[in-house]
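Backbone-to-sequence.
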């Protein structure tokens, strides 16, 4: 296959890959199971995720990305290599890869992503900021001199940006997103019920009954965990009103970050945003009521983008169309 172009949303929770001409071809959890004696990779993606919290001493199921950046370089490289091979088998020519990164990453963190992708088999690596990719994926025309505000809530980071003329005018990236919601649930259940639950159970609670805005009807869900007094398994019933209490702190941190970006936005762009509204993307934005909460606190209409989970990957894929121009400008 000649010079295939791949766009990768290298997420803390999920890796989504987009191939030019084919659309989204891969969506797998960013989890790797490694034998910590030999360093051998035993499973990647869905298979490895099933092992989280269930492995013997010599096997570690790990997430090599934390808070939107690479925390374990070697494992990230192996994971990327596995996914690139899964997408296209063996390439005649190494693919060009565009990877999206949080808007506030350091040069060292950028270099880690480029090196990991290059060593995993990329011919050339390009980086794109997550909010810009999300805005393109959400179908916004960011090339005009008009303000667009995007709030991209992933697994590790929430990226908020005001975009005009194809670039970020004001942006911020906070390490509060899906993972922090899960952690807040684990803490709350431990404190309130004296029961320890795992990350996966916390995520199921978040997806099924989690909310950050009062619901008309209280929902409930039974979960099993370990009783901290007896050390034995115990089933408890958790209500969505409890989830509202558990998730108050992380959700307000996101609201405050949106507020701070709006405060720094130039007045002309702020008036565009109040006309058009705020667009939300990423899996984290689907938590019940987050759009209503931001709308109530800012007074600006909030819309959740269509196929919000894939927006960043789709935007990265659409940005691949400009790679030839980027290559030409590099050579010029």
């Amino acid at each position: 296959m000649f010079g295939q172009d791949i766009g990768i949303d290298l997420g803390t929770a999920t890796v989504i890959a987009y191939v030019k001409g084919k659309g989204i071809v891969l969506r797998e959890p960013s989890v790797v199971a490694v034998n910590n004696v030999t360093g051998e990779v035993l499973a990647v993606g869905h298979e490895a995720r099933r092992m989280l919290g269930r492995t013997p001493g010599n096997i570690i199921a790990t997430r090599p990305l934390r808070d939107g950046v690479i925390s374990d370089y070697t494992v990230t490289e192996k994971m990327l290599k596995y996914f690139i091979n899964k997408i296209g088998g063996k390439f005649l020519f190494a693919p060009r890869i565009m990877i999206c990164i949080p808007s506030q990453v350091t040069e060292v963190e950028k270099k880690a992503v480029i090196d990991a992708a290059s060593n995993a088999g990329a011919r050339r690596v390009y980086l794109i900021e997550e909010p810009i990719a999300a805005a393109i994926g959400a179908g916004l025309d960011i090339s005009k001199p008009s303000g667009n505000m995007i709030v991209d809530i992933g697994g590790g980071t929430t990226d908020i940006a005001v975009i005009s003329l194809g670039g970020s005018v004001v942006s911020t990236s906070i390490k509060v997103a899906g993972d922090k919601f899960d952690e807040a649930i684990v803490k709350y259940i431990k404190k309130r019920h004296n029961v320890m639950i795992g990350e996966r159970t916390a995520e199921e609670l978040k997806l099924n009954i989690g909310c950050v805005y009062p619901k008309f009807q209280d929902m409930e869900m039974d979960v099993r965990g370990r009783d901290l007094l007896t050390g034995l398994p115990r089933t408890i019933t958790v209500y969505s009103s409890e989830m509202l209490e558990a998730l108050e702190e992380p959700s307000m941190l996101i609201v405050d970050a949106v507020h701070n970006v709006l405060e720094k936005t130039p007045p002309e762009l702020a008036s565009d945003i109040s006309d058009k509204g705020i667009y939300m993307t990423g899996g984290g934005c689907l938590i019940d009521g987050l759009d209503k909460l931001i709308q109530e606190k800012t007074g600006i209409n909030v819309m959740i983008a269509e196929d919000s989970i894939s927006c960043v990957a789709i935007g990265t894929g659409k940005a691949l169309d400009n790679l030839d121009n980027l290559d030409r400008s590099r050579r010029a």
